[in-house]
Amino acid sequence: MSLKDFTVPRTARRLLRAEPNLRMFSRLWQINWFFVLLICCLAGVGYVALYSAGGGRAEAFAQPQLIRFCFGLLMMLGVALASPRVLRMLSVPIYGLSILLLALVLKMGHVGKGAERWINLGGFQFQPSEFSKIALVLMLSTWFYRIGRDRMGNPLRLIIPALLTLLPVVLVLKEPNLGTATIVGVIGASLFFAAGMRWWQIILLVSPLPFLGPFIYNHLHDYQKARIDTFLHPEHDPLGAGYNILQSRIALGAGGRWGQGYLHGTQGQLSFLPEKQTDFIFTMIGEEWGYVGGVAVIGLLFLIMLSSMLIALRCRNRFGRLVGLGIAMDFFLYCVVNLSMVMGVIPVGGVPLPLISYGGSAMLTMMFGFGLLLSSWVHRDDPD
Amino acid sequence: MFFRRDETRPPFRKRSGPAADLPFSEEQAVGGGMFTRRALLLLAAQAGVMGTLAHHLYEMQVVHGDELKEQARRNRTSRRQIAPARGEIYDRCGVLLAGNRPNWRALVMAEETTDLQAVVDRFATIVPLDDRDRARIERDRKHIRRYVPLTLKEFLTWDDVARLGLNAPTLPGVLIDVGTTREYPFKELLAHIIGYVAPPNETDVQRDGIMALPGMKVGRAGLEQTQEVHLRGMPGTVEMEVNAYGRVMGELERVEGQPGARLELTLDTALQSRIRERIGDRVASAVVMDCRNGEVMGLVSTPSFDPTLFDGGISRTQWNALITDQGTPLVDKAVSGLYPPGSTFKPAVALAALKSHAITASERFSCPGYYDMGGVRFHCWSRYGHGAINLHQALKYSCDVYFYQVARRCGMEAIHEAAATLGLDGSLPIELPHMRAGSVPTPEMRRKHGHHWNGGDTVNAGIGQGLVQTTPLALATYASRLATGRLVQPHLLRSVSNQPVAQGFEPLPFANEFLAAARSGMFAVVNEPQGTAPAARLNLPGVQMAGKTGSAQVRNVPRALRESGHFNSMNLPWQYRPHALFICFAPYDNPRYAVSVVVEHGNAGATEAAPLAAQIMTDTLVRDPASRTSLSRGVVARADGLDE
């Protein structure tokens, strides 16, 4: 027994043992710092926006979120150093844990805005549905890595990953959180696609989907139907269900080309915007910074998507590529659903804007995901 | 699967971004080609979606920006009306009679306190609250609306404000605010004329929405009531920024309203207060009119009341004191007190008779001291009678028997018509809501209301008793018309917003010789030996006054008592004594002012009302330099005086 046994956690020791020839420093050197910088920029935008959402006070939202981000940054760097082998090893327990948490949240979750989404984990609230996306990416990547590209043509080989995807989708749908369930499903599907699913299989699967629309609508909860109705006709109930959409539209429009000025957005500062620090943070940015600010944020988000996809493309091994693509898709879907929601393109569902919206679970799981992405960058030249 | 250093990899610093690694050949990884194709497909989709979103944002923010901006503006602004300042009232010399005084009040926002009762109690230790304040706070608390402050105390002094400011930290939610309250510097002196304002009631609000604005007042009496249209003004608007909960965050724009019009009255406050002094503690009323243009310069009714009591809320004891006072302080006796005109009516009867050619001025009637008609004996005020006298003498001595006969001869219709022409019957266009019309009824009019007419009623009307009733204002108008021979109309408004209130008067339908006969009789009353009112002679060089006394019985004197020779009305209880009246105009040769005085239960016009009227006339003449210059110019044609 040496001093190292007490100071360094066991997992870390195992990680270090796995690559004895690479020192910690040189592996840190391998991290894609340009990507880390982009992440920090995004978090910076979040800090600035949350400062405004708190009415010009950092203590309200910006400060706690910054602390979370710093914690998440450390976690991301830690995960980035983990070897793909260990990650594959951990994929099954992580997936199992996420399913367990999803089941748990259905049993004893906290009701927030008509849906059971929160679980209390020793003092802080946690959204297992966020975590399940990352778990699914890891799980499917591991699975597709094991079966390899050649066996993708065999439909029987795809049954188990399909079930692995459907399980969290159904559980999240039960919560009920339609927005996140869709994201989880699309992430799964994109991994199937990227892993080499045959085109005829894809066409076979996708073709019946349009006919399922009415069926799905009939099985929606009343509040979800109401949301769709509201989305289609927000002006029917401007002070009730349509309020969010209308006020968000007004706020964005009020921003105009150049914005109303930082801390001077009337819709946000005068509380007309609901959820301005969480789901509708982009509206606040758009109102205060105008189209210029909004497009800058969209550009930054796309830059991160592009970098993520390039990391995945640059990767020489199948696992890294799939993980990278999964995380990139996760981030992309987050952004798209949130932005479309606040712009009134799709019905409202509780999906935050990654790293900008106020909230712990989404931030930490996203940082965990970026950690996985960076890990596949660090180990990009590992052979299959 | 071990991590291996790849020595062939380019150095790190060349890799400034992931893009630097592209492209790489397919043989780098098995199946890489397919993955690359599909990943690029997804990337393209991502780029497309993000581009679409950016375009959508452009549509919203730039293309539809303006209309949505307008919606946002409507969202956050709340337009409110603000009460206009009520018009001020000035007298003819520019003295403020009714104005607006800032009213500092303490309010409390119920939302900003945790324990309202504790705050109220602590407030009471700093600024004392009486039982009425506490009761009102208790009542207001029950139906208070959100973000509408509750009034703790009004009319704070500077000391109160300073002490509250010092203790502000211990009074959460308490704020000091300034409103206005109506101020009447002359209080009692002009209470009846100016009237007073009170907070609007439900009916006022229904009639005009702006009355619902906080701080609006509605005139409840006097000129405040009749000139409401002028005094109210137009409300301004203020645009406030409000948040989603309707709470006011700030003021954006303010459009000041149109304050109420400035009213200038014909009154002379200095004269008014002089008249008030002259009357003293008598229950009396006096009217001073410029007889050429009808401007009412003095209009006094005693006792009076303090009009500010009503704006601030009147207490029960104060109210009871006002309504039980024998002198009826709430009644403006000068305008709404109806009195029998008594002998002051005689010139009107004389004019009626002359006009109807029932008599001539020189025709003599005999007065033995009484007049019998239908078994009823009507007495002259003089037990011994006046002998055979003509009109001049009858007016000078104020002989009753002469006018009994004249009244019978010319008939009630002619008397009514003359009285109406002279302003004694019917309404006058004075700007006061409580004006009451005098009445000189005809038998026809009485019968229409189901009353019987006795021959004695006509006889009594001949000396202004019985069914004849009129007001001091009507008496002054009557005196003015007698003096000028024109249809002078009394009025109180000199100008509204500096626009003069124009007046022009028609001549009366009486021949000049008839009017001259009546005037000369009135001149004799004051200035000739044996006239009834030598006490009314003016002590001014070169100015002479004409007048007529009146003593109006309020109760029949029993025949036995009168015949006993020991009757003296001074021995009656106060409320049964006759009213003392006097009407006059001066200067006699170029009439400028007319005065009427009614002293309630003053016993005799000659002793009680005439000297008072003379004093008032002297005050009026002395006060007005214009009258002195016109005197120095000597005799001026009366018609000229009207055109001045």
TrEMBL record, chain A:
Principal location class: membrane
Q: Which InterPro entries match?
A: Cell_cycle_FtsW-rel_CS, FtsW/RodA, RodA/MrdB
- Localization terms from the record: Cell inner membrane; Membrane
Instruction: Show the PROSITE patterns listed in the entry.
Output: FTSW_RODA_SPOVE
Task: Identify the pathway.
Answer: Cell wall biogenesis; peptidoglycan biosynthesis
Q: Where are the transmembrane segments?
A: 31-53, 65-82, 94-111, 131-148, 155-172, 178-195, 202-220, 289-313, 325-349, 355-378
Q: How does it sit in the membrane?
A: Multi-pass membrane protein
Give the E.C. number(s).
2.4.99.28
Keyword flag Cell membrane: yes
Q: Which reaction does it catalyse?
A: [GlcNAc-(1->4)-Mur2Ac(oyl-L-Ala-gamma-D-Glu-L-Lys-D-Ala-D-Ala)](n)-di-trans,octa-cis-undecaprenyl diphosphate + beta-D-GlcNAc-(1->4)-Mur2Ac(oyl-L-Ala-gamma-D-Glu-L-Lys-D-Ala-D-Ala)-di-trans,octa-cis-undecaprenyl diphosphate = [GlcNAc-(1->4)-Mur2Ac(oyl-L-Ala-gamma-D-Glu-L-Lys-D-Ala-D-Ala)](n+1)-di-trans,octa-cis-undecaprenyl diphosphate + di-trans,octa-cis-undecaprenyl diphosphate + H(+)
Key words of the record? Cell inner membrane, Cell membrane, Cell shape, Cell wall biogenesis/degradation, Glycosyltransferase, Membrane, Peptidoglycan synthesis, Transferase, Transmembrane, Transmembrane helix
Annotated Pfam families:
FTSW_RODA_SPOVE
Superkingdom of this protein's organism: Bacteria
For this chain, the family text in UniProt reads:
Belongs to the SEDS family. MrdB/RodA subfamily.
Annotated function:
Peptidoglycan polymerase that is essential for cell wall elongation.
Name of the protein in question: Peptidoglycan glycosyltransferase MrdB
Species assigned in the record: Bombella pluederhausensis
